[in-house]
């Protein structure tokens, strides 16, 4: 394992207080120095602190090592269609439908998926690593025109993850057609989109979301959504699985 040197910038602050009018004070000087964090600090550990940390570590390890499901294949975040994004957005839509009823599709950015989901047993800790951010699941009401702009951005900038039911056809690096749930996009309609609050704010290059007419916040972290979804699959005796499908078609 590669050793990493950690340098901590330590500022012991020397407060030389000058008395001013009306009992006001000001910091006259601040001094600091570097402290290199090395193994020498492990030679004389504080027993009380070690015991306290171990208490929390034992409980945390038990929670993180809990197996909640099993993947029958490895899901990566690479390629034209990310298998991990396919799985994630389908889970988001399914969960959102349970909360809000009709949901047209779900969207996630590949940057929000931090690592690969490996084949085999899946633990809570694995899902913490993949969905590392504290992003919340939200429902966004979007005009059809804004939805078109969203997917045009995917074509022009980079492809992101979206749930099944959406079919995106690209020709000559441009959006040729877009259908949602088997119907051509209606620019005058309003679509209900499940995503995360970070993207709903127009971040990650998804400025089309700023045209939303309404946003409903579930106050549920996306990671918790996926943990619950995987547990649901397990209860139904199903495994985590995703395959490339017809969400994206690229014509020569």
CATH class of the largest domain: Alpha Beta
**For this structure, what is the CATH homologous superfamily of the largest domain?**
5'-Nucleotidase, C-terminal domain
Number of helices, counting only DSSP H or I runs of 4 residues or more: 6
CATH architecture of the largest domain: Alpha-Beta Complex
Count of distinct structural domains:
2
What helical percentage do the residues reach? 25-40%
The order of strands across the largest sheet is 7-4-11-6-12
- What structural class results from the helix and strand content? alpha+beta
Strand content: 25-35%
Folded structure, characterized:
The mean pLDDT is 90. The protein has six helices and 13 strands. Helix content is 29%, strand content 27%. Strands 7-4-11-6-12 form a five-stranded mixed beta sheet. Strands 10-9-8-13 form a four-stranded mixed beta sheet, covered by helices on one side. The chain has a two-stranded antiparallel ribbon with strand order 1-2. The protein has two domains: 6-55, no CATH class; 69-251, 5'-nucleotidase,  domain 2, CATH 3.90.780.
Question: In brief, what are we looking at here?
Answer:
This protein is α+β, with helices and mostly antiparallel strands and 252 residues long. 29% of the residues lie in helices and 27% in strands.
SSE blueprint:
Elements lengths: L5 E5 L22 E5 L9 H18 L2 E5 L11 H18 L4 E4 L11 E4 H7 L5 E8 H13 L4 E2 L3 E6 L2 E7 L2 E2 L5 E7 H4 L13 E8 H14 L12 E4 L1
Parallel strand pairs: 4-11, 8-13
Antiparallel strand pairs: 1-2, 3-5, 4-7, 6-11, 6-12, 8-9, 9-10
